[in-house]
Structures are given as C-alpha cells and as structure tokens.
Amino acid sequence: MKQSSLCPKFEKGMQMLGKRWTGLILYQLLEGPQRFCALEGALPVSGRLLSERLKDLEKEGLVHREVFTDSAPVRVEYSLTQMGLAMEPVLKGIESWAQEWIVLDPKDPADCDRSND
Amino acid sequence: MKQSSLCPKFEKGMQMLGKRWTGLILYQLLEGPQRFCALEGALPVSGRLLSERLKDLEKEGLVHREVFTDSAPVRVEYSLTQMGLAMEPVLKGIESWAQEWIVLDPKDPADCDRSND
DNA sequence: TAAACTAACTAACGAAAAGTAACTATGTTA
DNA sequence: TAACATAGTTACTTTTCGTTAGTTAGTTTA
C-alpha cells in the first residue's frame, strides 16, 4: 500500500467511517443506548457484521458495551461514548446533505425527517 | 438484505461515504480540480479503485470529469460539483473530529492541520 | 521512423471482507 | 420437556479489494 500525504488521523477517521455499516450504527445509537437485537432490527445489517462492527467500535472507543445480568435473559446494551457522541454533528451533517442532494428512484416515496428528535 | 427503518436518502448517503476511499477522494478534491495521476499520487489508493470510485462519484453527481484534448497528452481533470462541494462541512467535520479524538501509536509523530486552507 | 515514455485507464487473479444460514449457550415460558 | 428469545459464533458463498500487467493514444528522443 502506498503512502499518502494526508493527515494520518483524518485518514484513520475516514477509514472507520468508510467501513460499511459503521456510520449507520453510530447514527442509530444517537437515539440512545440500545440492545443488540434492537440494532439488528433497525439496520439492514446481519448479526455477524453487526457483532463485528460493534466490537471494532468498542475497541476504537466510540461505543460502550454493557451487560446486564439482572434481568431475564442476559441483556447487552450498546451506547455511545463521548468520542462517539462527538460524531453527532458529522452524522447529522451527512443526513442533511443526503436530504438536500440525494435523489432516489421516483418509484420510492422516500421522504423522511429525523432532524427534529 | 433486510429492510431498515432509516431514511433511504440518508442510508444511500452513508452507503456512498461508507465505501472505502470515497471520503478521501472527495476531501482531496476540496483542494481544487485535479488530474487522475495527482489523485493517485496524493492518496494511498490504487489506480484501479481510484478509477472505479471516480466513475461512481461521477455517476452519483458529486464529481465532474473533464477531458482536455488541447494540451500535450490528453489531460483529464476531476472536480467537485455543487453536490460534491456541499460535502465540505461533513468532510471538515470528520477532520476536526479525528484531530480531537483519534490517538495514534505514539511512535508516529502524526500531527497535521489543514483546517486553514 | 521507431523505441521509449507518459497519462489514463482496463483485465486478470488471488486475498480479504461481506452476506446468508445454521448453530450454540443460556435462560424463559407453555 | 419442547419451543422461544437474546447474543452471539461458525461455516460457506459471493462480492469487493489490492496488485501486477497490459492497453490506447499521443510525445519526446535518437
């Protein structure tokens, strides 16, 4: 692999966001702490990859994983750390950009607005 | 593939940015129109993928491709369209986020600042 | 005039990552 | 005890990536 003249921090950041699903997972977690199955249900990602991505994100420090042994079948909750939360403006920025610029096939109704949560 | 409850526009946007190199290519193009070989030199991406990504980005409307037949050996310049330029705040946002939060191995000096161009 | 060079790609191929489905461990409800 | 749910993991196939080599077209060099 070649060397680039870019800032290595930026490059690393883009490398993370430039992995499939990472952005969507973080975005979904902006809604608040969520369990594995909730994320799996909300996103079009398979359990295998979701598990993998969450592990990566935890390792990188964007996501916190907490296991609750008290309740019924063990419950695992994922939430954003400070570092993850700091991504909010970026994610919202992508959302606005998409709202403004992306045109979908005319067949889909495809309209949504979550900017007011 | 499952169905998600996310806004399809946002999902599509993330799908684009969530492809390897896309973000870096756009970021590099913020510097101004550039030729194929310049991009290839500036980024750690191979010619094959650069070509593929540029084609995608052109198709999606973020990048404009212009061929100059006047000068020496044919010259091809890539530049951002309005849609591509509109990504600037997002890309700069990722940059700031990375500057603030990403920690690299202590061996790399890894410090840079392009926020003032 | 032909060999070598440059820019901008494209093709082929092995390697890595993603998608899908089935399976596991643990506990719960019928 | 059988069927169900959560939170994964394993095994297998398909897709995407990365590398190297080759192509097209015009340019300089000898």
Automatic annotation (TrEMBL), chains A, B:
Signal peptide: none
Molecular functions (GO terms): DNA binding
Superkingdom as given in the UniProt entry: Bacteria
Key words of the record: DNA-binding, Transcription, Transcription regulation
A Pfam entry, by short name: HxlR
PROSITE patterns the UniProt entry points to: HTH_HXLR
Classification via InterPro entries: ArsR-like_HTH, HTH_HxlR, WH-like_DNA-bd_sf, WH_DNA-bd_sf
This protein's record includes keyword Transcription: yes
Domain HTH hxlR-type: 7-106
Keyword hit for Transcription: yes
SUPFAM superfamilies registered for this protein in UniProt: Winged helix' DNA-binding domain
Protein name per UniProt: Transcriptional regulator, HxlR family
Naturally occurring in which organism (per UniProt): Brevibacillus centrosporus
